[in-house]
Amino acid sequence: MLRGYSEADRRAVARLASGSLGGSVEGWEEHYDPEKNPRLDPEQVYVVEEDGDIRAMTAILPLEVFVDGVLVTMGGVADVATHPAYRLRGYAGELMRAALGGMLERGVHLSMLHPFAHAFYRRYGWELATEAISYRLKPTDLPTSFEQKRVRVYRDEDLPRMMALLEGEASRHPLCVRRGEAYWRTLLEREGTEAAVYEADGRVEGYLLYGQGEGRNMSRALTVSELIAAAPTAWEALVSFMAAFDPMMFEVRYSTPRGEPLHPFLPSSYVEARVGPEFMLRLVNVEGALSLLQRASEAPFVLEVEDDEIPENAGPYTVGGYNGDVARGARAEERVTLDVRQLAQLYAGYLPARQLVRSGLVKPGSARAVELLEGFFPPGDPWLFPPDHF
Length: 390
Hints:
The protein is an alpha+beta fold. It has helices at about 10-20, 25-30, 90-105, 120, 160-170, 180-190, 230-245, 285-290, 340-350, 355-360, 365-375, and strands at about 1-5, 45-50, 55-65, 70-80, 110-115, 125-130, 130-135, 150-155, 195-200, 205-215, 220-230, 250-255, 270-275, 280-285, 300-305, 315-320, 325-330, 335-340, 360-365. The chain contains 11 helices and 19 strands.
Protein backbone atom coordinates (compact mmCIF):
# COMPACT_ATOMS: atom_id res chain seq x y z
CA MET A 1 0.00 0.00 0.00
CA LEU A 2 1.33 3.41 -0.94
CA ARG A 3 0.60 6.10 1.62
CA GLY A 4 1.86 9.34 3.06
CA TYR A 5 4.52 9.61 5.71
CA SER A 6 3.84 10.25 9.40
CA GLU A 7 6.14 11.20 12.26
CA ALA A 8 5.71 7.70 13.66
CA ASP A 9 7.48 6.37 10.55
CA ARG A 10 10.71 8.26 11.17
CA ARG A 11 12.70 5.44 12.75
CA ALA A 12 11.57 2.87 10.17
CA VAL A 13 12.29 5.27 7.30
CA ALA A 14 15.72 6.04 8.74
CA ARG A 15 16.55 2.33 8.98
CA LEU A 16 15.39 1.77 5.40
CA ALA A 17 17.39 4.72 4.08
CA SER A 18 20.50 3.65 5.99
CA GLY A 19 20.30 0.08 4.71
CA SER A 20 19.60 1.14 1.12
CA LEU A 21 21.51 4.40 0.66
CA GLY A 22 24.21 4.27 3.34
CA GLY A 23 24.86 6.51 6.30
CA SER A 24 23.87 6.05 9.90
CA VAL A 25 20.34 5.50 11.16
CA GLU A 26 20.81 8.44 13.53
CA GLY A 27 21.88 10.68 10.63
CA TRP A 28 18.78 9.77 8.65
CA GLU A 29 16.55 10.33 11.66
CA GLU A 30 17.95 13.84 11.87
CA HIS A 31 17.48 14.25 8.10
CA TYR A 32 13.78 13.46 8.52
CA ASP A 33 13.35 15.91 11.37
CA PRO A 34 11.70 18.99 9.79
CA GLU A 35 13.12 21.18 12.56
CA LYS A 36 16.65 20.23 11.49
CA ASN A 37 16.14 19.85 7.73
CA PRO A 38 14.72 23.08 6.28
CA ARG A 39 14.18 21.45 2.88
CA LEU A 40 11.92 18.65 4.10
CA ASP A 41 8.15 18.78 3.71
CA PRO A 42 6.76 15.71 5.53
CA GLU A 43 3.56 15.97 3.48
CA GLN A 44 5.59 15.23 0.35
CA VAL A 45 7.19 12.02 1.61
CA TYR A 46 5.74 8.76 0.27
CA VAL A 47 6.18 5.23 1.64
CA VAL A 48 5.14 1.76 0.50
CA GLU A 49 3.99 -0.41 3.37
CA GLU A 50 3.24 -4.13 3.21
CA ASP A 51 2.51 -6.46 6.13
CA GLY A 52 3.34 -3.68 8.56
CA ASP A 53 6.80 -3.05 7.09
CA ILE A 54 7.92 0.06 5.20
CA ARG A 55 9.53 -1.42 2.11
CA ALA A 56 10.18 1.64 -0.07
CA MET A 57 10.16 5.42 0.19
CA THR A 58 10.90 8.71 -1.52
CA ALA A 59 10.69 12.41 -0.71
CA ILE A 60 9.87 15.41 -2.88
CA LEU A 61 11.74 18.52 -1.79
CA PRO A 62 9.94 21.82 -2.44
CA LEU A 63 12.78 23.83 -3.98
CA GLU A 64 13.21 26.87 -6.19
CA VAL A 65 15.39 27.01 -9.30
CA PHE A 66 16.32 29.70 -11.79
CA VAL A 67 14.75 29.62 -15.25
CA ASP A 68 15.70 32.52 -17.48
CA GLY A 69 17.00 34.28 -14.37
CA VAL A 70 13.63 34.03 -12.60
CA LEU A 71 12.88 31.82 -9.60
CA VAL A 72 10.29 29.07 -10.14
CA THR A 73 9.17 26.12 -8.04
CA MET A 74 10.71 22.70 -8.63
CA GLY A 75 10.09 19.31 -7.06
CA GLY A 76 13.37 17.63 -6.15
CA VAL A 77 13.01 13.85 -6.03
CA ALA A 78 15.27 12.54 -3.28
CA ASP A 79 15.90 9.51 -1.07
CA VAL A 80 14.43 6.96 -3.46
CA ALA A 81 15.01 3.73 -1.56
CA THR A 82 13.72 0.16 -1.57
CA HIS A 83 14.78 -2.44 0.95
CA PRO A 84 17.15 -4.88 -0.79
CA ALA A 85 14.87 -7.81 0.11
CA TYR A 86 11.94 -6.24 -1.74
CA ARG A 87 13.45 -4.94 -4.95
CA LEU A 88 12.17 -5.80 -8.45
CA ARG A 89 8.57 -5.68 -7.23
CA GLY A 90 7.56 -2.36 -8.82
CA TYR A 91 7.69 -0.31 -5.63
CA ALA A 92 10.04 2.36 -7.03
CA GLY A 93 7.87 2.81 -10.12
CA GLU A 94 4.80 3.16 -7.91
CA LEU A 95 6.60 5.87 -5.96
CA MET A 96 7.62 7.73 -9.13
CA ARG A 97 4.04 7.84 -10.37
CA ALA A 98 2.83 9.02 -6.97
CA ALA A 99 5.50 11.72 -6.95
CA LEU A 100 4.48 12.95 -10.39
CA GLY A 101 0.81 12.94 -9.42
CA GLY A 102 1.54 14.89 -6.25
CA MET A 103 3.52 17.53 -8.14
CA LEU A 104 0.76 17.88 -10.73
CA GLU A 105 -1.78 18.44 -7.94
CA ARG A 106 0.45 21.12 -6.39
CA GLY A 107 1.00 22.94 -9.69
CA VAL A 108 4.73 22.15 -9.79
CA HIS A 109 5.82 22.15 -13.44
CA LEU A 110 9.45 21.02 -13.12
CA SER A 111 11.14 18.14 -11.33
CA MET A 112 14.79 17.15 -10.97
CA LEU A 113 16.68 14.22 -9.48
CA HIS A 114 20.15 12.72 -9.30
CA PRO A 115 19.77 9.20 -10.74
CA PHE A 116 21.12 5.90 -9.54
CA ALA A 117 20.30 4.60 -13.04
CA HIS A 118 19.47 6.85 -15.99
CA ALA A 119 17.46 4.16 -17.78
CA PHE A 120 15.14 3.69 -14.81
CA TYR A 121 14.17 7.36 -14.56
CA ARG A 122 13.93 7.82 -18.32
CA ARG A 123 11.09 5.33 -18.15
CA TYR A 124 9.11 7.94 -16.21
CA GLY A 125 10.03 10.95 -18.34
CA TRP A 126 13.15 12.38 -16.71
CA GLU A 127 16.18 13.05 -18.92
CA LEU A 128 19.80 14.05 -18.36
CA ALA A 129 20.10 17.83 -18.25
CA THR A 130 23.24 18.78 -16.32
CA GLU A 131 26.87 17.71 -16.08
CA ALA A 132 30.07 18.80 -14.36
CA ILE A 133 33.81 18.78 -14.87
CA SER A 134 35.43 17.13 -11.85
CA TYR A 135 39.11 17.89 -11.21
CA ARG A 136 41.73 16.12 -9.14
CA LEU A 137 44.80 18.29 -8.83
CA LYS A 138 48.01 18.74 -6.91
CA PRO A 139 48.19 22.08 -5.11
CA THR A 140 51.24 22.85 -7.27
CA ASP A 141 49.01 22.60 -10.39
CA LEU A 142 47.28 25.80 -9.29
CA PRO A 143 48.55 29.38 -9.68
CA THR A 144 49.34 31.54 -6.68
CA SER A 145 48.60 35.21 -6.13
CA PHE A 146 49.60 37.91 -3.67
CA GLU A 147 45.88 38.63 -3.41
CA GLN A 148 45.71 35.63 -1.11
CA LYS A 149 46.66 38.00 1.70
CA ARG A 150 43.05 39.27 1.53
CA VAL A 151 41.60 35.83 2.29
CA ARG A 152 40.39 35.20 5.84
CA VAL A 153 38.17 32.75 7.69
CA TYR A 154 34.40 33.13 7.58
CA ARG A 155 32.53 35.16 10.20
CA ASP A 156 28.80 35.11 10.89
CA GLU A 157 28.36 38.65 9.62
CA ASP A 158 29.63 37.56 6.18
CA LEU A 159 26.57 35.43 5.45
CA PRO A 160 24.25 38.08 3.90
CA ARG A 161 26.95 39.09 1.42
CA MET A 162 27.78 35.45 0.62
CA MET A 163 24.10 34.77 0.00
CA ALA A 164 23.92 37.71 -2.40
CA LEU A 165 27.04 36.58 -4.24
CA LEU A 166 25.67 33.08 -4.68
CA GLU A 167 22.26 34.28 -5.82
CA GLY A 168 23.84 36.49 -8.46
CA GLU A 169 25.95 33.60 -9.73
CA ALA A 170 23.15 31.03 -9.54
CA SER A 171 20.77 33.19 -11.59
CA ARG A 172 23.10 32.81 -14.59
CA HIS A 173 22.73 29.02 -14.61
CA PRO A 174 19.53 27.31 -15.77
CA LEU A 175 18.08 25.01 -13.11
CA CYS A 176 20.42 26.24 -10.36
CA VAL A 177 18.81 25.82 -6.94
CA ARG A 178 18.22 28.88 -4.78
CA ARG A 179 19.65 28.37 -1.29
CA GLY A 180 17.64 29.89 1.52
CA GLU A 181 19.16 31.25 4.71
CA ALA A 182 18.02 28.31 6.83
CA TYR A 183 19.76 25.83 4.56
CA TRP A 184 22.84 28.08 4.36
CA ARG A 185 23.11 27.92 8.13
CA THR A 186 22.61 24.15 8.13
CA LEU A 187 25.51 23.81 5.69
CA LEU A 188 27.84 26.07 7.65
CA GLU A 189 27.09 24.22 10.88
CA ARG A 190 27.72 20.83 9.31
CA GLU A 191 30.70 18.99 10.74
CA GLY A 192 33.65 19.11 8.37
CA THR A 193 32.49 22.20 6.44
CA GLU A 194 34.79 25.22 6.47
CA ALA A 195 34.48 28.58 4.76
CA ALA A 196 36.92 31.33 3.77
CA VAL A 197 36.21 34.71 2.22
CA TYR A 198 38.06 37.25 0.10
CA GLU A 199 37.65 40.75 1.51
CA ALA A 200 38.86 43.89 -0.28
CA ASP A 201 38.29 47.43 1.00
CA GLY A 202 35.95 46.15 3.69
CA ARG A 203 33.67 44.24 1.31
CA VAL A 204 33.47 40.49 0.76
CA GLU A 205 33.90 39.83 -2.97
CA GLY A 206 34.24 36.07 -2.95
CA TYR A 207 34.22 32.95 -0.81
CA LEU A 208 34.78 29.22 -0.90
CA LEU A 209 33.35 26.28 1.01
CA TYR A 210 35.64 23.34 1.61
CA GLY A 211 36.35 20.30 3.71
CA GLN A 212 39.10 17.78 4.28
CA GLY A 213 38.94 14.02 3.97
CA GLU A 214 40.74 10.93 2.77
CA GLY A 215 42.40 11.10 -0.64
CA ARG A 216 44.19 8.56 -2.81
CA ASN A 217 47.42 6.76 -1.93
CA MET A 218 47.26 7.73 1.75
CA SER A 219 47.01 11.44 0.93
CA ARG A 220 44.49 13.93 2.27
CA ALA A 221 41.83 15.50 0.06
CA LEU A 222 40.94 19.17 0.06
CA THR A 223 37.43 19.14 -1.41
CA VAL A 224 36.26 22.57 -2.52
CA SER A 225 32.50 22.33 -2.93
CA GLU A 226 31.89 25.94 -3.94
CA LEU A 227 33.97 28.90 -5.10
CA ILE A 228 32.20 32.18 -5.91
CA ALA A 229 34.11 35.25 -6.99
CA ALA A 230 32.67 38.61 -8.02
CA ALA A 231 35.99 39.90 -9.39
CA PRO A 232 39.10 38.38 -11.02
CA THR A 233 41.21 39.28 -8.00
CA ALA A 234 38.85 37.33 -5.74
CA TRP A 235 39.08 34.28 -8.01
CA GLU A 236 42.89 34.51 -8.07
CA ALA A 237 43.07 34.79 -4.30
CA LEU A 238 40.75 31.86 -3.59
CA VAL A 239 42.51 29.60 -6.09
CA SER A 240 45.78 30.60 -4.45
CA PHE A 241 44.28 29.54 -1.12
CA MET A 242 43.78 26.07 -2.63
CA ALA A 243 47.37 26.10 -3.92
CA ALA A 244 48.74 26.86 -0.44
CA PHE A 245 48.05 23.35 0.90
CA ASP A 246 51.00 21.02 1.31
CA PRO A 247 51.48 19.15 -2.02
CA MET A 248 53.11 16.24 -0.15
CA MET A 249 49.96 15.77 1.92
CA PHE A 250 46.99 16.94 -0.12
CA GLU A 251 45.20 16.51 -3.41
CA VAL A 252 42.59 19.08 -4.46
CA ARG A 253 39.12 18.09 -5.64
CA TYR A 254 36.95 20.69 -7.31
CA SER A 255 34.05 20.64 -9.78
CA THR A 256 32.97 23.31 -12.25
CA PRO A 257 30.13 23.82 -14.70
CA ARG A 258 31.05 22.55 -18.16
CA GLY A 259 30.91 26.14 -19.43
CA GLU A 260 33.45 27.33 -16.87
CA PRO A 261 36.38 24.88 -17.06
CA LEU A 262 39.37 25.39 -14.81
CA HIS A 263 42.17 23.75 -16.80
CA PRO A 264 42.55 26.42 -19.54
CA PHE A 265 43.62 28.88 -16.84
CA LEU A 266 46.26 26.75 -15.16
CA PRO A 267 50.02 26.94 -15.77
CA SER A 268 49.70 23.49 -17.37
CA SER A 269 46.37 22.15 -18.62
CA TYR A 270 47.58 18.54 -18.28
CA VAL A 271 45.54 17.76 -15.17
CA GLU A 272 42.98 15.11 -14.35
CA ALA A 273 39.56 16.31 -15.50
CA ARG A 274 36.48 14.13 -15.91
CA VAL A 275 33.16 15.17 -17.42
CA GLY A 276 30.35 13.38 -15.63
CA PRO A 277 26.54 13.36 -15.87
CA GLU A 278 24.60 14.80 -12.99
CA PHE A 279 20.93 15.80 -12.64
CA MET A 280 17.94 14.83 -14.75
CA LEU A 281 14.97 17.08 -15.51
CA ARG A 282 11.30 16.26 -16.01
CA LEU A 283 8.68 18.66 -17.40
CA VAL A 284 5.80 17.59 -15.16
CA ASN A 285 3.34 19.93 -16.85
CA VAL A 286 4.56 20.84 -20.33
CA GLU A 287 2.26 23.81 -20.85
CA GLY A 288 3.08 25.21 -17.42
CA ALA A 289 6.81 24.68 -17.90
CA LEU A 290 6.82 26.40 -21.30
CA SER A 291 4.86 29.31 -19.84
CA LEU A 292 7.69 29.92 -17.36
CA LEU A 293 10.13 30.81 -20.13
CA GLN A 294 10.87 34.51 -20.68
CA ARG A 295 11.43 34.15 -24.43
CA ALA A 296 10.17 35.05 -27.86
CA SER A 297 11.24 34.10 -31.38
CA GLU A 298 11.12 35.50 -34.89
CA ALA A 299 7.91 33.60 -35.58
CA PRO A 300 5.68 31.12 -33.77
CA PHE A 301 6.12 27.41 -34.31
CA VAL A 302 4.53 24.20 -33.09
CA LEU A 303 6.03 21.64 -30.72
CA GLU A 304 4.41 18.23 -31.21
CA VAL A 305 5.19 16.69 -27.81
CA GLU A 306 5.06 12.99 -26.99
CA ASP A 307 4.75 11.84 -23.36
CA ASP A 308 4.15 8.15 -22.71
CA GLU A 309 3.85 8.57 -18.92
CA ILE A 310 1.63 11.65 -18.56
CA PRO A 311 -0.79 11.51 -21.54
CA GLU A 312 -2.21 14.95 -20.70
CA ASN A 313 1.11 16.48 -21.80
CA ALA A 314 1.01 14.94 -25.26
CA GLY A 315 -0.04 17.02 -28.24
CA PRO A 316 0.76 20.26 -30.04
CA TYR A 317 1.87 23.51 -28.38
CA THR A 318 2.36 26.77 -30.24
CA VAL A 319 5.27 28.77 -28.84
CA GLY A 320 7.35 31.76 -29.85
CA GLY A 321 6.23 34.89 -31.54
CA TYR A 322 6.87 38.36 -30.23
CA ASN A 323 4.61 38.13 -27.17
CA GLY A 324 6.12 34.85 -25.99
CA ASP A 325 2.72 33.25 -25.27
CA VAL A 326 2.19 29.48 -25.15
CA ALA A 327 -1.00 27.97 -26.51
CA ARG A 328 -2.32 24.43 -26.72
CA GLY A 329 -2.96 23.40 -30.30
CA ALA A 330 -1.29 23.95 -33.65
CA ARG A 331 -1.50 27.62 -34.61
CA ALA A 332 1.56 27.96 -36.82
CA GLU A 333 2.93 26.31 -39.94
CA GLU A 334 6.42 25.28 -38.82
CA ARG A 335 6.49 22.13 -36.69
CA VAL A 336 8.90 20.08 -34.61
CA THR A 337 8.10 16.63 -33.21
CA LEU A 338 9.92 15.53 -30.07
CA ASP A 339 9.61 13.51 -26.91
CA VAL A 340 9.15 15.18 -23.52
CA ARG A 341 12.62 13.91 -22.57
CA GLN A 342 14.36 15.79 -25.37
CA LEU A 343 12.18 18.81 -24.68
CA ALA A 344 13.64 18.77 -21.15
CA GLN A 345 17.18 18.84 -22.58
CA LEU A 346 16.32 21.78 -24.81
CA TYR A 347 14.52 23.51 -21.95
CA ALA A 348 17.62 23.29 -19.76
CA GLY A 349 19.94 24.42 -22.54
CA TYR A 350 21.86 21.19 -22.02
CA LEU A 351 22.04 20.08 -25.68
CA PRO A 352 21.81 22.25 -28.80
CA ALA A 353 18.74 21.78 -30.97
CA ARG A 354 20.76 20.94 -34.06
CA GLN A 355 22.64 18.19 -32.22
CA LEU A 356 19.37 16.56 -31.18
CA VAL A 357 18.13 16.86 -34.75
CA ARG A 358 21.28 15.18 -36.10
CA SER A 359 20.82 12.34 -33.62
CA GLY A 360 17.29 11.76 -34.88
CA LEU A 361 15.74 12.44 -31.47
CA VAL A 362 14.07 15.65 -32.62
CA LYS A 363 12.23 15.70 -35.95
CA PRO A 364 11.71 19.12 -37.55
CA GLY A 365 9.34 19.67 -40.43
CA SER A 366 11.76 21.96 -42.26
CA ALA A 367 15.09 23.76 -42.06
CA ARG A 368 13.20 26.86 -40.96
CA ALA A 369 11.70 24.92 -38.05
CA VAL A 370 15.24 24.03 -36.89
CA GLU A 371 16.22 27.71 -36.96
CA LEU A 372 13.20 28.67 -34.88
CA LEU A 373 13.87 25.83 -32.43
CA GLU A 374 17.50 26.93 -32.04
CA GLY A 375 16.48 30.51 -31.44
CA PHE A 376 13.88 29.62 -28.83
CA PHE A 377 16.05 27.09 -26.97
CA PRO A 378 19.61 28.46 -27.02
CA PRO A 379 22.36 26.39 -25.35
CA GLY A 380 22.99 27.30 -21.72
CA ASP A 381 25.10 26.11 -18.82
CA PRO A 382 22.73 24.27 -16.46
CA TRP A 383 24.30 23.61 -13.08
CA LEU A 384 23.67 22.87 -9.42
CA PHE A 385 26.35 23.82 -6.92
CA PRO A 386 27.49 20.69 -5.03
CA PRO A 387 26.24 21.87 -1.61
CA ASP A 388 22.74 21.95 -3.10
CA HIS A 389 22.82 18.39 -4.41
CA PHE A 390 19.98 16.23 -3.16
